[in-house]
Amino acid sequence: MRVGIIGAGNMGTAFARRLGSTSHDVVIASRDPDDARNVAATVGARVRAVPQRQLAESADLLILAVPYPHQADALRESGPVEGKTVIDIANPGTPDMSALAIGHTTSAAEEVARAASGAKIVKAFNTIFAQVLGERPPAAGAPRVQVFYAGDDAAAKGAVGSLIESMGFEAVDAGPLTNARYLEPLGMLNIYFGYAAKMGTDIAPAVRKVSPQTTEVRADQVARPAGQPGALPDGMRAPGRPRARLRSRMRSPHSRLSGGSRLTQRV
Ligand SMILES: NC(=O)c1ccc[n+]([C@@H]2O[C@H](COP(=O)([O-])OP(=O)(O)OC[C@H]3O[C@@H](n4cnc5c(N)ncnc54)[C@H](OP(=O)(O)O)[C@@H]3O)[C@@H](O)[C@H]2O)c1
User: Fold this and answer.
1) 225 and 128 share a domain?
2) Where are the alpha helices (H) located in 45-107, listed in sequence order?
3) Cys-Cys link to 66, which of 7, 44, 86, 224 (CB 3.0-4.6 A)?
4) Of 155, 181, 196, which one is at a domain's C-terminal end?
5) Structural domain tally of the chain?
6) pLDDT by residue (tens digit) across 189-221?
7) 88 & 192 share domain
8) How far is Cα 158 from Cα 110, in angstroms, rounded to an integer?
9) What are the tens digits of pLDDT across the range 1-14?
């Protein structure tokens, strides 16, 4: 795959390093061409620096590794992106990163999609610190870090899922692009854990099955009205609204709900 990286900061460098160990054809650009050249020189021969205006024509898939306020400009300055798959990795925080600057009714990913109409936007990697991204892929059979990805275009999602797996991560389909409204707060929680809670930046969130009896619901089974975050499938209720029979069991002092698994099965 021909992969183009926009931005030569923490994430751009880490992408170049990780992708440089794959068989992909990787190009990188930044607004200061010297920054891109330095990254390419540091990570090895598989990564080439190109002028930013030539980036889109040099790649089938672009990774937008710039801060949220610069995303629209950076895409515009990268050449025609019509028909290209673009990965948005941003956590759209306030300048001091103490809170999200946008959310609830939109997300960075949806704003990029609006700004770059014709491009196929996929949200991914925003829950992965540069430190984790820049590490060597794990040995075969070792546990892999999960990368959540969300988007509306099936082919673009397929390409991004393949890219994620080719980098040694586990690709986790997180549904439609509007689910970026969930992924971006998760990215901020990851930042909280890494910095404020002092866990360090060698961490990543993961979703795990906790019981073999839990009902599995795949993202592609989740229907949603256009423009809305993922709606729950038939038979599922929103968390906090247990069905009547379960409510009465929960009230009963003799209720013997067996840990989390019973609840998980019934929601
Ligand atoms: N750092 C992390 O661990 C992490 C983790 C997950 C997600 N993210 C997200 O990843 C994105 C990048 O973060 P970062 O830490 O890599 O930021 P960073 O170190 O500040 O790097 C940003 C890069 O983008 C370049 N840039 C800015 N505007 C541009 C434009 N118009 N055209 C081309 N290049 C432009 C910058 O160039 P200049 O140096 O010239 O400004 C710089 O090379 C952000 O959206 C962030 O939320 C970061």
Assistant:
1) no
2) 71-76
3) 7
4) 196
5) 2
6) 999 999 999 999 999 999 999 987 655 555 555
7) yes
8) 19
9) 999 999 999 999 99
Q: Ligand 1 pocket test: which of 13, 30, 96 has the largest number of ligand atoms within 8 Å of its C-beta? A: 30
> What pLDDT, on the 0 to 100 scale, is given for residue 267?
26
Residues 81 and 136 in one domain: yes
Spatial distance between the Cα atoms of 91 and 181, rounded to a whole number of angstroms: 10
Residues with CB under 6 A from ligand 1: 6-12, 30-32, 35, 52, 65-68, 70, 73-74, 77, 89-91, 126, 128-130
Q: Which strands make up the sheet holding 85-88, listed edge to edge?
A: 47-49, 25-29, 2-6, 61-64, 85-88, 120-124, 146-151, 170-173
φ, ψ for residue 259 (rounded to 5)?
60, -150
Could you say which residues of the chain have pLDDT below 70?
A: 213-267
Q: Position 226: which residue type? A: A
